[in-house]
Structure formats: structure tokens, C-alpha cells
Design goal:
single chain; about 160 residues; alpha+beta; five-stranded antiparallel β-sheet; 1 helix; about 30% helix
Length: about 160
């Protein structure tokens, strides 16, 4: 009577093939995760600007003004002078926010977008650039992975334009 069984070499070949397939799947997943993190950071920046604008426009916000500060590695939301929320780019090595003012050469070190209650105009400030420019463009850039997204804000409306 002959018993049917797998040899040790056959089992090792099957395991090696499974490991190769798993490694290929993991490398594909890392780029998907990087793209998701990138999109999430960009959407968070737009959301924080919209949130500040909405709080200033409605009676729900208790503060006199709401401000969003966008630096190269983080976004902060303030109610008056109180920091209420921060989003960091720590989980995205190589990704940075770049803020630019239309008509000005160079980048802002920190872009500030302020919405005052009852005010019809948005106050835009660019540290390292100009105070109260007509418009501000904020870009999230990950040059190592060729990912770029941007939005602009005009001081008349204060609505992020994608």
C-alpha cells in the first residue's frame, strides 16, 4: 500500500510562492496607503478652512473670529486665540504644505486665513509674504512620490476653490 503525502520540498516551494505573492501585494498596498494619507491630509486642510468659515458665519460659533494657520508641516484651527484643533503631517514623511500669494515670488512660511463674525471679507495673511493679499493658494506636495493637490482662497468670498 502506497501512502499519498507531500514531501518537505513541495511544502517549502508552496510556502516560498505564497511569500513572494504576499510581498508583491504589500508593496502595492503601501502606495495605496500613501495616496490615502495624502488625500486625507489635503481634505483635512480644506475642511478646517470650511469649518472656520461656517462657524464665523453662523451663530453656533461662540468666538468673535476663527482662524486657520497652515505651516509646512501642520494645520491649526483657532477660535479667537484658543487653539481648538491641530493636524500634523508626521505620518507622511516628505510631504509639506506650500502656501503662495498670487503675484508674490516665494512661499509663505505660515498662511493665515481668518473669518470674523459678521465681516463680509476674509482676512488672508502670509508670513514671509504680504498682509491681506487678494488670494492665497495652498498646495500639499509630496515630491518624493509625485503627489500634488492645491486649493485657493479669495479674500472676498473665503471659499476654498479646488
Amino acid at each position: 500500500m502506497k501512502k499519498s503525502a507531500f514531501t518537505l520540498i513541495e511544502l517549502m516551494i508552496v510556502i516560498a510562492i505564497m511569500l513572494i505573492l504576499a510581498a508583491a501585494a504589500m508593496s502595492g498596498m503601501s502606495s495605496v496607503l500613501r495616496n490615502l494619507r495624502f488625500g486625507n491630509a489635503f481634505n483635512k486642510a480644506v475642511f478646517m478652512v470650511q469649518q472656520a468659515r461656517n462657524l464665523a458665519a453662523t451663530e453656533k460659533g461662540a468666538a468673535a473670529s476663527y482662524r486657520v494657520e497652515i505651516a509646512s508641516d501642520n494645520i491649526k484651527l483657532f477660535a479667537d486665540t484658543t487653539l481648538t484643533e491641530t493636524y500634523n503631517l508626521q505620518n507622511m514623511p516628505g510631504a509639506t504644505f506650500v502656501s503662495q500669494v498670487t503675484g508674490i515670488t516665494g512661499n509663505c512660511s505660515t498662511a493665515k486665513i481668518e473669518f470674523a463674525k459678521g465681516a463680509a471679507k476674509t482676512i488672508l495673511t502670509c508670513e514671509g509674504g504680504s498682509a491681506n493679499p487678494a488670494s492665497l493658494t495652498v498646495a500639499l506636495s509630496d515630491t518624493a512620490n509625485s503627489l500634488n493637490k492645491s486649493f485657493s482662497i479669495h479674500n472676498a468670498a473665503g471659499i476654498p476653490q479646488l
